[in-house]
Every structure is written in C-alpha cells, then in structure tokens.
Design a protein that fits this description.
Structural class of chain A: alpha+beta
Number of strands of chain B: 7
Oligomer: heterodimer
Radius of gyration of chain B: 14 Å
Largest interface: A-B, 46 and 35 residues
Helix content of chain B: 10-25%
Number of strands of chain A: 19
Number of helices of chain A: 15
Radius of gyration of chain A: 21 Å
Largest sheet of chain B: 4 strands, antiparallel
Distance between the termini of chain B: 24 Å
Strand content of chain A: 25-35%
Shape of chain A: globular
Chain lengths: 471, 137
C-alpha cells in the first residue's frame, strides 16, 4: 500500500521516494482519501510523479479515481524544455467538456411540460450508443472543423459570436493542423459530429436553486429559479483514435515506461510531441464544434415550444486537455505545459485567458453533479493558481464499478426514484441509467466543499436538475 | 471459461483465457462482443479478412481489439465471430477472417470509447494463456 502523509484536513502527500521526481499532492477529505485507497488511484498519482520534467508535484483533485495513465482528477505541470507530453495525461476523450447555457425561462414556465420538452430535445439532439450526428460533412469541411472548432460552427450559422467568446480558448485551439490527425481518426469522426455520445454524457435542464454570491451571479446573468441548460460531451471517436494513434507512434519512437505503458510520452519539443499537441488541439476543436451544434439544436427545439426563447452561453470548460500556460515556478513566471485529466481550469481574476467581461471576477468553473444531483457554477481563484496550476475537480467522480451497479441497481427503478424527486429522465438505454445512478458517484457537494475550503474555487450558484437526457 | 469481467471503478476490465494465444485473443473478442451487444446473435452476412500488425503481444492485442471499433464506427460492421485466427509470435502479425453483419440492423448495448494499455497483459499462466484488458467506456 502506498504511504501517505496528512498535511492538513484537506491535503495529503505521497512523499517523494524511489523513482519519483516530485511528491504527490492530493486534495481530499479523510472520507474521500479512503475511497481513493480502494483502487489504484494513489499508484497512478505516484507514477505521474516519475515523468521527466514534472514540476512541483503530481496533483490529484477531490474527485480523483482510477483512470489509465493519469488518474481521473489528475493534474501535472511540465517544464517545456525538459518535460514530456503524454496522451495518458489527457485521456481518450480529448476535450470532454461542459457548456452552461442560461435561458430567459424560469421554473414556472416549464414545470408542467418538462416531460414534453425533454422528449423533444431527445428527438432533435442525436445521442446514445452508435448514434450518428445529423450533419453531413465532406473531408475538407471536417478539416475546417478541426482547425476552427466552435468558430467554424458559428461561421456556418450554428450560433452567435458571443457563444465562442464565452468558451475556453475562444472555442478554438490555435495551431491545430488537420494533417496531424490520422485517416482512421477522421473516418471515425466524420459521421459523429453533432452527437452527444453515450456513457456519462448528458444534456440537462436545470433550475438555479441557490445563489451563493449575488454580485457575481448577477454578472453571469443568473438569478434564483432561472432555467439553465448544461451540455456534457467530447470529441467522440475522433478524439479516441487520436489518443490511440499517438500512443502507438510514441512507443515506436521512444519505448514506454515500465511502470505504466499508458504513460507513454514524448519530449514536448520533439517532432512527435508537437504533432500530438496539434492533433489533440484538432480533437479539442471537434469537441468545441460538437457542443456548438448541439447548442444550436437546443435553441431550435426550445423555440418550437417557447416562441421568444433565448439562450446565451455562460461559459464552456474543458475537462481533458493539455495547454501551454504561464505559471509561477520557484518564484518566476514561466510558460509550462499543464495536463488536466478529468480536471477543470480554475484561474483567478485578471488572467488574459478569461473572457473580457469576466476577467475582473475570475474564470467561471462548471462542475456537473451525477445524474439527479445538483451541479455547480463556481469561479477560480489566485490561490488555485498557486497550489494546483489553477485547477480544480471536474465532477462527482465514480466510486463504484459499472458491473457492480448493474448487479445491484435497476435502471427502471432509478428512473422511478428520480421521477419521484420531480426529475424527468430520458435515455436510449435503461442499462445506462443503472450504470450512471447517483449511488455510484461520490457526493458532489463534498467535492465542492473541499475545493472551496482549500481555496481552489468559490461557489456562485447551485443548479438543480429538472429534466435529464442521457446518452 | 472463455472470459470473465473484473471490478474496475470507472471502466470495464476483463480477462480472457485460452489453451493457445489465438484462443485467448478470440475470447478477448467475445468479451468485447458481449459488451457491445450482449448475448444477441449477429447474422453472418459479411465475411472479411483482417490483418493486424503489432510490436509485441500487448500491442497486437490492443490493435486487434481496436479493429472492431473501427469496423463498427466506420465500416458499420458488427462482428459475430472470428475464424481462422493465426498469430505469428515472432513478427507479431495476426490474420483472421471476421464474420458479421451490417451494424444498422442491431441496437448496441454499450459504447466503447477505446482500448487501453492500463493493466494490460498477455501471458501464459501454467498451461493457459490469459489476456487482461481495460477498456475506456
């Protein structure tokens, strides 16, 4: 068993030992640490600490659980000259991410017909296992998507300029060269653009149930009882194949670490390292465009029901991504590579990466709860920049396996229980409802509490589910 | 036993067994098929030869299983069985014939995002070959 040292009530350390280049740092309560000790989460945090050029510590967020390569909820910064980039630090679902829309409706407007609304959305937004998107693209058009992300979609009349302006990276990672994405990845991506996918991906209608900071909530244009819509999806087969392809290219060129083949990597400045970053950026853009298309169909659908319906993007955050960012290392500001795998960027006020109209308050952070539990809107802090490379958790984090969930839970019953709580649920797969039941996740409130207490984020609003559509 | 599923917090983990490497690979495919479609039978309307190359046994297994994701998402073929599977353990080349049907005719039970190297092994334990795989779903 891996030894850990308690630093404070919410911080733990895996002391530097053997091949580790830096210690491990975990933000968690006693309770959450116990959950992490049940699988190989700590081992994965330790393995990341062995990677060349890692700065400071291998960090894990309160929602951390076993992944592959990095743990989910794993964050690490790397020296640009001596460090490496690893597809295992980003994950297969590149830019799996969350967008929050605010609407001009309140709970009163939709309470009576929420079932009808979610059914209509289910019909109009492609989702589920094996489902394809509803737009047909040529190969040349796909290249444009990969280069321009959400901005491609807006240019093609799927939304407004304000949408991508409220998206991380302006909805477009620069220097994304479609030539660095393999044919197989493009072939998998082509039919899937504009689809939600399955598993933990969802579209949810929510009600602002609690405001923690009136002033900032007002800046975001949010008030109590207002309806918001959350979209959670990623880069689909295109991103998965980019990860696979580069894992194989890197192991051919550089071999792989004995402690975990999934942590295969390439020097950041090597040809292959740069190509992976470019291909990853393309996949990230695919995910940005994907959410932009879904936003468009949500607007279209809602307008059929509410003639004057309006939805604006509050913000859109990446959960699985690598980025070049400036951080203070040993008292000096320098550019480093930060990999966030199942973690959210949480910059404090003033950073140039934050959209202009939010810059004075800090970056919006969106953390979805599990199905049937509340999600949160928070803001990042200067403290986060100091202790976690400006990062926080990305969700509730699983504690129980899907196989156990299927054995012990019944999808129909989960649906009934949610209905009794006043939450409508629709899914192409009853099985998925059992696999994604709230019982198999950590308590999101606890994850948020720790993020708050450690000072990584500040709570702004709580968003209660009203109707959920699951893939 | 052809294969068994093991506990994994977030994803799917299985072990597949066989008297030969070929059998353990084929049973890995059956575990994956079980995930994708359950116990339903897929018609044998399409027959196709596949050739897979690897740099070692783990990599070959990874590539072999990934081929089924590609067949499904791009060529829209759902595979019922793998015949005439041959593995050259020196050059790490696999050849086989897959038999299946158009995926359009079936409702899938599970989405698989990717095969991973996480906790993967292919090894002979006593007289049996065992493949262990974690898949990202």
């Amino acid at each position: 068993m891996i030894k850990i040292k308690k630093i404070s009530n919410y911080e733990w350390e895996i002391p530097k030992q053997r091949e580790m280049k830096v210690p491990g740092k975990i933000f968690a309560s006693e309770n959450l640490i116990k959950e992490m000790q049940k699988d190989i989460t700590l081992e994965q945090i330790e393995n990341v600490a062995k990677l060349p050029g890692i700065i400071n510590s291998s960090i894990a967020m309160p929602d951390a659980h076993q992944g592959y390569g990095f743990s989910i909820g794993g964050v690490a910064g790397f020296d640009v000259d001596k460090g490496v980039i690893s597809p295992g630090g980003v994950g297969y679902d590149i830019n799996c991410s969350v967008r929050l829309l605010k609407t001009n409706l309140t709970i009163k407007d939709i309470e009576k017909n929420k079932k009808q609304i979610i059914e209509k959305l289910f019909k109009n937004v492609p989702s589920g296992v094996g489902e394809k998107g509803k737009i047909k693209l040529s190969k040349e058009e796909l290249d444009e998507v990969l280069k321009n992300g959400a901005q491609w979609a807006v240019k093609n009349k799927y939304g407004f300029e304000e949408d991508w302006k409220h998206t991380e990276e302006n909805g477009k990672m620069e220097n994304a060269n479609p030539n660095d994405v393999g044919q197989r990845a493009k072939a998998r991506g082509l039919p899937q653009l504009g689809s939600l996918g399955a598993g933990n991906h969802f579209l949810e209608i929510q009600e602002v149930s609690e405001i923690f900071d009136d002033k900032i909530a007002k800046k975001f244009g949010l008030e109590k009882n207002q309806i918001t819509i959350m979209i959670h999806c990623g880069s689909r087969g295109l991103g998965h194949q980019v990860a696979s392809d580069y894992i194989k290219l890197m192991e051919k060129e550089y071999g792989f670490p004995k402690y975990d083949r999934e942590l295969i990597n390439a020097p950041i400045k090597s040809e292959l390292g740069k190509k992976y970053f470019s291909a990853m950026s393309c996949a990230a853009n695919f995910a940005f465009a994907n959410k932009q298309l879904i936003t468009h169909w949500v607007r279209q659908t809602m307008k059929e029901i509410f003639k004057n319906f309006k939805a604006e993007v509050v913000y859109d955050v990446c959960h699985n991504i690598a980025k070049f960012e400036k951080h203070f290392v040993d008292g000096k500001e320098k550019e480093i590579l930060v990999m966030r795998k199942g973690a959210t960027r949480a910059f404090g006020a003033g950073r140039k990466e934050i959209p202009e109209d939010y810059r004075s308050i800090g970056q919006p952070v969106i953390i979805p709860g599990s199905m049937g539990t509340s999600s949160y809107l928070l803001i990042g802090t200067k403290e986060a920049e100091k202790i976690s490379f400006g990062s926080t958790a990305h969700g509730a984090g699983r504690i129980e396996s899907r196989s156990k969930a299927l054995k012990n839970l019944n999808g129909e019953k989960i649906k009934r229980e949610l209905n009794e709580k006043g939450i409508e649920v629709i899914s192409g797969s009853i099985k998925n409802l059992a696999e994604e039941a709230p019982q198999v996740y950590k308590n999101v409130d606890e994850v948020i509490e720790i993020s708050d207490k450690v000072g990584l984020t500040k709570k702004i609003a709580k968003l209660k589910p009203v109707a959920v559509m699951k893939g | 036993m052809k294969y068994k599923f093991l506990n994994h917090t977030a994803d799917i983990k299985f072990q597949a067994f066989g008297k030969t490497t070929e059998q353990s690979f084929r049973n890995s495919f059956f575990a994956m098929k079980n995930l994708l479609i359950g116990r339903k039978k897929i018609k044998g309307k399409i027959k196709k030869e596949i050739k897979i190359f690897g740099m070692d046994l783990n990599n070959l297994l990874y590539n072999f299983l990934e081929e089924f994701l590609y067949l499904l998402e791009v060529e829209e073929i759902l595979v019922e069985k793998v015949e005439k599977i041959k593995i050259d353990k020196e050059t790490f080349k696999l050849t086989a014939v897959i038999v299946g049907d158009s995926a359009k005719n079936y409702k899938l039970a599970q989405h698989i995002k990717a095969i991973t190297y996480s906790q993967m092994f292919v090894k002979k334990i006593k007289t049996n070959w065992v493949c262990q795989v974690v898949m990202d779903i």
